[in-house]
Amino acid sequence: MLAIALACWASSAQTADEPSRSVLKYQNHRLSVRLLAVPLEEVMADLGQASGADVFGTVRQPREVSAEFDDVPLVEALQRLLGGNFILEYGRGDRLRAIKLLGGPLAPIKMAVTSMAVAPTPVDVAPPTSGVPQPRDPGGAVGMLDGHPAVPVSGRLAQALGTDAATFRQLFDAASHNEDAAARAEAMRAFMRTLDAEPEFREQLLQALNTLDDFTLTQLLYGLAGSHAQEIAAEIAAHAHGSELRSRARGILLRLDGARDAANEAGKRLAG
After folding, report:
1. Residue 220 in contact with residue 212, Cβ under 8 Å?
2. CA atoms within 13 A on the CB side of 162
3. Dihedral sign for Cα atoms in the order 142, 144, 150, 153
4. Strands 30-39 and 22-27: what pairing?
5. Is residue 132 scored above 50 in pLDDT?
6. SS3 for 242?
7. Which of 36, 105, 245, 247 is 20 to 30 Å from the Cα of 65, by its Cα?
8. Which residues have CB under 8 Å from 227's CB, separation 6+?
9. For residue 68, what are the β-bridge partners?
């Protein structure tokens, strides 16, 4: 009996001394994580708990993630974890109010009970009160891209996509994330050509985008396109048919340019 008791005590002590399997900390719109084979949906549920934000939708590619980084801006951190396809919404006082995952229906993600250590919610990102409006639907624009029939593609783009017919969403994803700059440019040109050839669809898409303010629209584009969001906005601003679509693209471009300039200035101050 004494030997059994000592063995149990030793096992218990060893477990207590081991570091937590995974850690997630959110503070001041920045994220730190130590993740080891944690389901991505659990990570997002725990982020909602830590930040006080509502998390809607489902991840596009459910999988286990392993990652480690410290004090990374939330947009960049989510880009690393999700690879795009999300929107952040903020309420009064610049508090994070909602995280929308665009991989599926925008139903709330239930909080998961996991072994992840979640830091307490800081004061500056307290959960929104009942008086704060609920998150808005992103106009259905992404769903319209998903639902559009495939269009013929050829040449380098067909080789990059591995198909001779691509949906609007596939074209947009290729323009956003393909490693080959020439393939990205060709995908964007094909996207714009198809949009110009279907004025009725273009008008419906524009109506959906017009339900969003410039801030939300910028977040939507950055969530979908990540580091190539400026490249896409510039292409639309320069070549889209219709002054309204070009105007919205220029507004996004100005916001993205402003964010880049602010980051560069902050970097210079830190370096100095």
Report:
1. yes
2. 1
3. negative
4. antiparallel
5. no
6. coil
7. 105
8. 79
9. 34
Q: Is 119 exposed, middle or buried (0-12, 13-18, 19+ CB in 10 A)?
A: middle
The DSSP secondary structure of 150-196, one letter per residue, reads PEE--HHHHHHHTSSEE-HHHHHHHHHH-S-HHHHHHHHHHHHHHHH
Other Cβ atoms within 10 Å of 191 Cβ, number: 23
Residue 254, judged by CB atoms within 10 A of its CB (0-12, 13-18, 19+), counts as middle
* Ordered structural domains, the chain, with CATH: 22-125 (3.55.50), 141-261 (no CATH)
Distance (Å, whole) CA 166 – CA 182: 17
CA end-to-end distance (rounded Å), the chain: 66
- Tell me what the mean pLDDT of segment 236-244 comes to: 82
In which residue are the tokens 């964007």 written?
188
CA atoms of 133 and 92, how far apart (whole Å): 10
Handedness of CA 254, 260, 263, 265 (dihedral sign): negative
Tell me the pLDDT tens digit for each residue of 192-215: 888 888 888 888 888 888 887 888
Least confident span in 37-46, 103-112, 167-176, 251-260: 103-112
Which of 175, 244, 96 minimizes the C-alpha distance to 167?
175
